[in-house]
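$ ./design --mode recover --in tokens.txt
reading tokens...
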């Protein structure tokens, strides 16, 4: 599923959850990466719903693994990993 600016949090979470077992499947890995990137970019400062919360640190770890897998099998072009921006201060 191609996520866009019109994608809802529920849709992105559904895509992420539907592709949690991406190992060995390039399509699932690509869908996982897309959903994880969307969620990380659009994340609120705090996220919880009825006692459920999202662990963004764990998601970033899995995202790195999925991106590494896709790079190894040649399914995505080499590019820098998704990182948090930090201001450099001299």
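writing sequence...
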């Amino acid at each position: 599923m191609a996520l866009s600016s019109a994608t809802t949090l529920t849709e992105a979470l559904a895509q992420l959850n539907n592709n949690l077992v991406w190992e060995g499947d390039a399509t699932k890995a690509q869908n996982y990466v897309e959903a994880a990137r969307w969620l990380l970019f659009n994340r609120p400062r705090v996220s919880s719903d009825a006692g459920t919360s999202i662990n963004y640190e764990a998601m970033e770890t899995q995202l790195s693994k999925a991106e590494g897998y896709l790079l190894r099998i040649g399914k995505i072009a080499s590019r820098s990993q998704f990182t948090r921006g930090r201001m450099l201060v001299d």
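exit 0
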